[in-house]
Amino acid sequence: MSEAIGFRNVRKSFRRRGGELPVIDGADFALARGEFVSVLGPSGCGKSTLLNMAAGFETADSGEVLAGGAPVTGPDHTRGVVFQQYAVFPWLTVADNIAFGLRLAACGIPRDRHAAIVERYIGLMGLRGFENAYPKELSGGMRQRVAIARAYAPGPELLLMDEPFAALDAQTRESMQELLHDIQLTERRTVMLITHSVEEALFLSHRVVVMTPRPSRVSEIVPVGIPFPRTPETRLSPEFIGLRRRLEELLRGLSAAQASTPKEGRAA
Amino acid sequence: MTTVTAPPAEAPPRRGAPEWPARLGYGTAGFALLVAGWYGAYLLGLVADGLLPRPDEVAVAAWRRLTGQGLLTDLRISVTRVVIGVALGSALAVPAGFLLAWYRPVRLMFGPLVGFFRALPPIALVPLVIVYFGIGETARISILAYAAFFVSVVVVHEGVASIEPIYIKAARSLGATEPEVFRRCVLPLVVPQFLVAVRVALGVSWATLVAAELVAAHRGLGAVIQNAGDFMRVPDVYVGIVLIGAVALVMDQLLKAAMGRATRWQERTGG
User: Fold this and answer.
1) pTM score, whole prediction
2) A170 contacts in chain B (CB < 8 Å)
């Protein structure tokens, strides 16, 4: 399997008053084409920084971020992003939001196919009847469906999702996870999902990358051996619960280690 | 959560936002109060006799000037000057405000200059403009364009600067180039602010125009006021004043209507 996105010993610090704040201290992993991988870690560990580097919004201090083998130099249409905040365009209707990427010069999909593509994602995301609604008329969950549809529509090879359901209530969250799961069954794109929810990571992913606290590195990469399609019952299976317990313990251990380490004490 | 198939209901009219008949009624009542107060001031003799005309005297004077002395021509001339001046000034303010907000070096270099020129009242430039442009239409319109530009550029700059970066990031992640970001995100997001800028610029331009016409013009509403004043025809002065207010009000209402249309997507409070 070829590689969709790869991090090669990536390091990244942020400048703060009074010095550098190391955020990523050696990220080294890759996503194969068609793979769904979640990145899990304690809050503030730099998960979103990884995503921003993959998207091209930020650059690594050292190491390499490779998309399809080529270094990432900036954002482009081959890597779609779904943001945590509601980033749907408030001045466009649902249909125009979804068509936004299609209408850009970079996309290259002929104009006469746009309407059919928009229509398809309206259907897949359960947005029928809302084509002409403005985002202000939609609930948080609906807006996030629009954001996901907008990211899928121009056909990027890789989708980067930055805690897309974090702002939603628990019920909406679960149904959105199932929606994303179903879309992936037919679309099979490569997805890198940033999340702090163990359950979300397990339910959707082929593999889960667990990060240590800041300055963070990969602690462990856990394969989720549960076959697709998964169902709401999957969440109750012994296999799922066992993995969930294991990951939660792993995260707890990482947080405890962080709490007991003095702030400046970086292991050499 | 269920998948909803029904289209969203039409948004119900907001409480406290009267529909247009009520709106018109309230507005008329406000002016009726003003006229009543005017008669009151006249009858009570609050102003020395002969210096405050009755509203009906003003109406008669307006009719006389309309039919016999080309008041409509004065009106047309003033409106044309304001419209051209504001159109020029605020159209130039859009790219300028964008450049100021978008590019730090531009902002650092020209921001203070804008502040400098903005502080100069356009009226203060009238003598200079007369020196350079004479007293023709170019002179008057350039003063108005100047006034409109410096009012608008600040509003457009602020509008562009306050755009949420998340929208720009989202557009870039979809493959938008810099010109596409400008055309497809910045412009639509700035339209509401731009219309605010035009409203404010219109107000400033009317004030400036009348002052400019008071000084150097034969026609126009400012000239009407000045000429009437020279001959102590107080009702005619009031005709000019009322007409300026009325025209400015109509223009503002038209712009507000345009704004309502252009900002349907926005959530807003207070109509």
Assistant:
1) 0.80
2) none
